[in-house]
Write a structure and sequence with these properties.
CATH superfamily of the largest domain in chain A: Translation initiation factor eif-2b, domain 2
Number of strands of chain A: 17
Largest sheet of chain A: 7 strands, mixed
CATH class of the largest domain in chain A: Alpha Beta
Order of helices and strands of chain A: EEEHHHHHEHEHEHEEEHEEHEEEEEEH
Oligomer: homodimer
CATH architecture of the largest domain in chain A: 3-Layer(aba) Sandwich
Strand order of the largest sheet of chain A: 6-5-4-7-10-16-17
Distance between the termini of chain A: 33 Å
Number of domains of chain A: 2
Strand content of chain A: 15-25%
Chain lengths: 338, 338
């Protein structure tokens, strides 16, 4: 079964504790705003859509019916992951709902309703990407993916993994190769876990093995998520995505990006304008307590890379797919967005 | 200063303990055959040429002047790493020397002399690859390398790193980017350590970052070692080498292999005939004690991949260089080997 990343039951937010995966499957129960803040801060829940949903439910755990407590919860939760756009977006929706509600004793129900709506919209988005993608990938059996653009990053089903789950549920034979995705190993820890939970055969490889695997002829399609998509169709995604696109191009393997239209940023002309976060050296230089890079050596640790549109076979969204050659998100936007 | 991997002083073999790098620099002192066996078995010393040299010195540590003790040492040391061709080759040379020596009281000196000869030949080979490579790479400033084909795998200077050390010593400005090289991190732990010891600026990156780095225009040449080279010029090397060759090709960056002619295996027509060792899942599935791949997922862990000759700009050997297009090692062999 495809796991549920978040559940809101009896005024508790239940999360799969992603810091304990894959060694242990533990439910992290939040019955206070502080618990939810802690869960987001410590990456118990991660992935932009999942963080947004968790924060929305988190607001509902403030003192019942107390307008000021809800507002304080929003401010506090906004500090849990300073760069997560979906977090602010979800909290803004909760705030608007609060402000639109005149009666204090209706506040709780209104906010819970809004959080459930955000949650359901995400489910719907994932399911729709799955259906759109499955129609495109109907003849593919063996997929390569990178990082975790799966159910654990969203409500369930994910973006890049959604078409694979869809094909699997339709009874198609599917198989996934998951890059481990250094330095934080989201592919090994999370993608491999959720796929195996769902019953989809999955094989983990180091990022350096993807080239040889493609050369062997085993891979029918590469499918990845996206962090941001510029107006010309260039895609920023987890570091290691770009070399996969080049390798897929060299081996004539189709390369797909699956992402909600909310990932489109038409304010950016090309991918070169996307800022790339440089993360700390410790993520590369240590494995747990063990030092693996000498102190005298430099370390580079960009979180993302940019894949130019010309290497992308298609961008799968919840509203349809853009097919190569991708010239401009904007010009194709109209048909896709309608 | 470029570190010395092995030194034989006062009837002791001194090794840099590579299992402790880069956190600690510790000398591992061997004064018995058992110590040397242990050092090879536990990867205190690794890299085919370095293992061969260590085993040769190891024989010299048997009971002085006792023919049977020397023969027993050879048999015992041959069990330290079952697949290391250089190990058997070095022990065969020691055995031939033993058999050619009629007088028991000359045995010790004869064997030490042979081990020193093997050691010196390796030094000479590395220095020569360095000189051959430096003449080819004179206009390159910034190198990308993979795994450790450096001094720590040989007597000193290495194969892929030898031209870089040579250029550095000639006063050229050089800089190295070292892939960490999952799963065993030889690039992060060993290449970065020895280059920084020698004063060469080095930056460690995860294997997945090499593509974006090449796209940035920073890399002038890729240079790697080789485990085996087939007759048509196909190269087997550490897993992750092949995707680097494809990425270099796509970015029009020259891709060089540096290896002694002893790496040529003319009995193999193409790289497809090179057997690829599949290693255990634990190397990928664990980081120290920490499980990072769920038990239900498969793991692939090939130790090597094969880079076809058409992606290689040049093969640098101690006897000269083969330049693209590399058609056949055999036909070019004559000029190179002479």
């Amino acid at each position: 079964m495809i796991p549920e990343t978040l559940e809101y039951i009896d005024n508790q937010l239940l999360l799969i504790d992603q810091t304990r995966l894959p060694a242990e499957v533990v439910t992290f129960r939040c019955d206070s705003v502080e618990h939810v803040h802690d869960a987001i801060y410590r990456l118990v829940v991660r992935g932009a859509p999942a963080i947004g949903i968790a924060a929305a439910y988190g607001v509902c755990l403030a003192e019942r019916g107390c307008r000021n407590a809800y507002l304080a919860a929003m401010d506090y939760l906004a500090t849990s992951r300073p760069t997560a756009v979906n977090l602010f977006w979800a909290l803004d929706r909760m705030r608007a709902r609060l402000e639109g509600c005149a009666s204090d004793h209706e506040l709780h129900d209104a906010l819970v309703h809004e959080a459930i709506t955000i949650h359901n919209e995400d489910r719907e988005m994932c399911r729709s990407i799955g259906i759109q993608g499955a129609s495109l990938l109907r003849n593919c059996h063996c997929f390569l993916t990178h990082c975790n653009a799966g159910g654990l990053a969203t409500s369930t089903r994910g973006t890049a993994l959604a078409p694979i789950y869809q094909l699997y549920e339709e009874g198609k034979k599917v198989e996934v190769f998951a890059d481990e995705t250094r330095p934080l190993l989201q592919g090994a820890r999370l993608t491999a876990w959720e796929l195996s939970q769902a019953g989809v055969p999955v094989t983990v490889l180091t990022d350096s093995m993807a080239g040889g695997l493609m050369r062997s002829g085993k891979i029918d399609a590469v499918i990845v998520g996206a962090d941001r998509i510029a107006r010309n169709g260039d895609v920023a995604n987890k570091i290691g995505t770009y070399p996969l696109a080049v390798l897929a191009h060299y081996h004539r393997i189709p390369f797909y990006v699956a992402a909600p239209t909310s990932t489109f940023d038409v304010s950016l002309e090309t991918g070169d304008a996307i800022p790339i976060e440089e993360r700390n050296r410790e993520e590369v230089a240590y494995q747990g307590e063990r030092l693996v890079v000498p102190v005298a050596a430099n370390v580079m640790n960009p979180a993302f890379d940019v894949t130019p549109a010309n290497l992308i076979t298609g961008i799968i969204t919840e509203k349809g797919s853009l097919r190569a050659p991708i010239q401009s998100i904007e010009s194709e936007f109209v048909s896709v967005m309608d």
